[in-house]
């Protein structure tokens, strides 16, 4: 089978919505080429366990790539992708150069193109993300391994927003807790919560492909006994309270259900939010405070913000 590589030269701000557009168009995952990765200074215990090649990255902006099968619907799919990306400006999202290029690759090249981007990455004190095809030995006995197959969708779990969410889960999840993961995507946050010994994790996503992908990754990581994946629109019709709610989605979406999150989090419980660009920081912070949360900690990584908010014990 032949595949078409679609490459979008855009901005860091647009990575998440562009990736979602590509996913909805039928891509099984995305590759993100961000030149800031070349300049990032990492402490020894965190970071990629391999060398980055500068030739794989643009001089400015970011490139988001995906692979679509070459068929009679390809032209229509590409035009819909372009229209959807252009529409992002109506949400005040900077799409940068917005240069879209198409090239053709065969099956073997496609597989190689995927795998060269994905390697084990230590993202926190406890967690290391490992592609399923890599053989990786734990560095310490308390290291927690999350296995992901990036070919299934949603990248490798190493984007700054995901990393901050996992680091926030480390700070908040206690053994026996209940957790809700809103917009689960690959399921990586639900898996992390389960590995932190949460007793019950409910993972929700509106997209049925995301639900299937998350369920596969949950099974792969042997946490099906703790994680339930199902289709749902944000927190609509959810009644059972939780100790921790985590949402790694766009700021505009977070603000749609911040009041519902406040009422579903148990007193003293936490609401972790990410996917927030610097320009939206104050909007989300104000929304959290207005709903009744108190901000416990603000995490920053590159141009992204994550809040750890808590519902007060007494109101």
Quick structural gist:
The protein is an alpha/beta fold and 315 residues long. It has helices at residues 15-24, 36-39, 74-86, 107-115, 160-172, 188-195, 208-220, 251-254, 258-264, 281-291; strands spanning 2-10, 31-33, 47-48, 62-69, 99-106, 121-122, 127-131, 144-148, 178-182, 200-205, 227-231, 242-248, 265-277, 294-301, 304-310.
Largest sheet: 7 strands, mixed
- What does the overall shape look like? globular
According to DSSP, the number of beta strands is 15
Overall average pLDDT:
84
Number of domains: 2
Question: What is the topology?
Answer:
Blueprint: E1 2-10, H1 15-24, E2 31-33, H2 36-39, E3 47-48, E4 62-69, H3 74-86, E5 99-106, H4 107-115, E6 121-122, E7 127-131, E8 144-148, H5 160-172, E9 178-182, H6 188-195, E10 200-205, H7 208-220, E11 227-231, E12 242-248, H8 251-254, H9 258-264, E13 265-277, H10 281-291, E14 294-301, E15 304-310
Parallel strand pairs: 7-8, 9-10, 9-12, 10-11, 12-13
Antiparallel strand pairs: 1-4, 1-5, 2-4, 3-6, 6-7, 13-15, 14-15
Helix pairs in contact: 5-6
Primary descriptors:
globular, 315 residues, single chain, four-stranded antiparallel beta sheet, alpha/beta, seven-stranded mixed beta sheet, Alpha-Beta Plaits
What does it look like?
- It is a single chain.
- The protein has 2 domains: 116 residues, Alpha-Beta Plaits, CATH 3.30.70.120; 184 residues, Rossmann fold (3-Layer(aba) Sandwich), CATH 3.40.50.150.
- It is globular.
- Helix 5 packs parallel to helix 6.
- It is 29% helix and 30% strand.
- The chain has 315 residues and is α/β, with parallel strands linked by helices.
- The strands form 3 sheets. A 7-stranded mixed beta sheet has the order 11-10-9-12-13-15-14, sandwiched between helices.
